[in-house]
């Protein structure tokens, strides 16, 4: 049925991850119900994605427009997010296909999303991506300019900012990222307390296969997991 892993393997991965999510949530004084487990489905075939959704995965995320469009018709109903770098000229292609764009990394992109959302008569939910490691190579707002950008973006028509997203630097040990997750959580709480109009700051999306437990311990309430669910990607 599935190309790259058996249903049994998926079931095992999923139950292990659920257990780890539960443990990490409890460590931070929450329950598993407080955490959204989003399956990052890049390179995963439609049958496998549908199997995952039928097994209880409620949220899925693609990071490439072309791949999202190719699979979208075949994927059964779920909460669909966009999680990758988005070029402004592709916004119109996905605006009606996803319920949340997690990876808004510039004012220019936010303006285009607003423009297309107005055209389609919908309100687009977004997260702002933060370059929490201050890396040259990474997309996202610098922590120092986040508030100013959030104020401008929240004021755009047909956009609702639901929170923040981050991809910390690649590291060897999950523990090395704890400081970035802490920093993100502090930023999230500070900015939430400012109660900026049209920004609800409900979602803090951080943590992937190698470090989602640490991210949850530090306050993430949405984790994006690919490899740990579906196995290693073969490109
Ligand atoms: C692929 C991807 C993930 C998941 O990565 P894994 O290490 O396979 O869990 C999370 N977030 C984004 C933006 C991705 O592109």
Describe the structure in your own words.
By secondary structure, this protein is of the alpha/beta class. The chain is 39% helix and 19% strand. The protein is built from 9 helices and 8 strands. It has helices at residues 7-27, 46-54, 65-72, 91-94, 107-120, 146-154, 178-193, 212-217, 227-230, and strands at 36-40, 59-62, 79-82, 100-104, 124-130, 159-166, 199-205, 222-225. An 8-stranded parallel β-sheet has the order 7-6-5-4-3-2-1-8. Helix 5 links the parallel strand 4 (100-104) and strand 5 (124-130). The longest helix has 21 residues, at 7-27. It is globular and about 45 Å long. The two termini are 20 Å apart.
List keywords for this structure.
single chain, 235 residues, alpha/beta, eight-stranded parallel beta sheet, 9 helices, 8 strands, globular, binds pyridoxal-5'-phosphate
The H-and-E topology, N to C, reads as HEHEHEHEHEHEHEHEH
SS-derived structural category: alpha/beta
Q: What spatial form do the alpha-carbon principal axes imply?
A: globular
Described by strand count, sense and barrel closure, the largest sheet is: 8 strands, parallel
Helix tally equals 9
Mean pLDDT: 95
Count of DSSP strands: 8
Instruction: List the uncertain runs.
Output: none
Helix amount = 25-40%
Bound molecules: pyridoxal-5'-phosphate
Q: What is the radius of gyration?
A: 17 Å
Strand content: 15-25%
Spatial strand arrangement across the major sheet: 7-6-5-4-3-2-1-8
Blueprint (SSEs and pairs):
Elements: H1 7-27, E1 36-40, H2 46-54, E2 59-62, H3 65-72, E3 79-82, H4 91-94, E4 100-104, H5 107-120, E5 124-130, H6 146-154, E6 159-166, H7 178-193, E7 199-205, H8 212-217, E8 222-225, H9 227-230
């Amino acid at each position: 049925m599935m190309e790259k892993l058996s249903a049994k393997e998926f079931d095992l991965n999923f139950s292990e991850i659920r257990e780890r999510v539960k443990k990490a949530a409890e460590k931070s004084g929450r329950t598993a119900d407080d955490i959204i487990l989003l399956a990052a489905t890049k390179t995963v075939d439609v049958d496998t994605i549908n199997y995952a959704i039928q097994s209880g995965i409620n949220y899925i995320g693609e990071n490439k427009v072309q791949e999202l469009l190719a699979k979208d018709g075949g994927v059964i109903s779920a909460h669909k997010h966009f999680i990758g770098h988005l070029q402004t000229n592709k916004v119109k292609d996905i605006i009606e296909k996803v319920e949340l764009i997690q990876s808004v990394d510039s004012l220019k992109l936010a303006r285009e999303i607003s423009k297309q959302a107005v055209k389609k008569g919908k309100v687009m939910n977004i997260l702002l991506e933060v370059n929490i490691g201050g890396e040259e190579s990474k997309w996202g707002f610098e922590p120092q300019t986040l508030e100013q950008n959030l104020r401008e973006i929240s004021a755009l028509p047909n956009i609702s900012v639901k929170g923040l997203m981050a991809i910390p630097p690649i590291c060897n040990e999950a523990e090395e990222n704890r400081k970035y997750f802490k920093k993100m959580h502090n930023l999230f709480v500070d900015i939430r307390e400012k109660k900026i109009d049209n920004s609800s700051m409900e979602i803090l999306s951080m943590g992937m296969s190698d470090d989602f437990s640490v991210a949850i311990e530090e306050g993430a309430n949405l984790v994006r997991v690919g490899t740990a669910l579906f196995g290693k990607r073969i490109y």
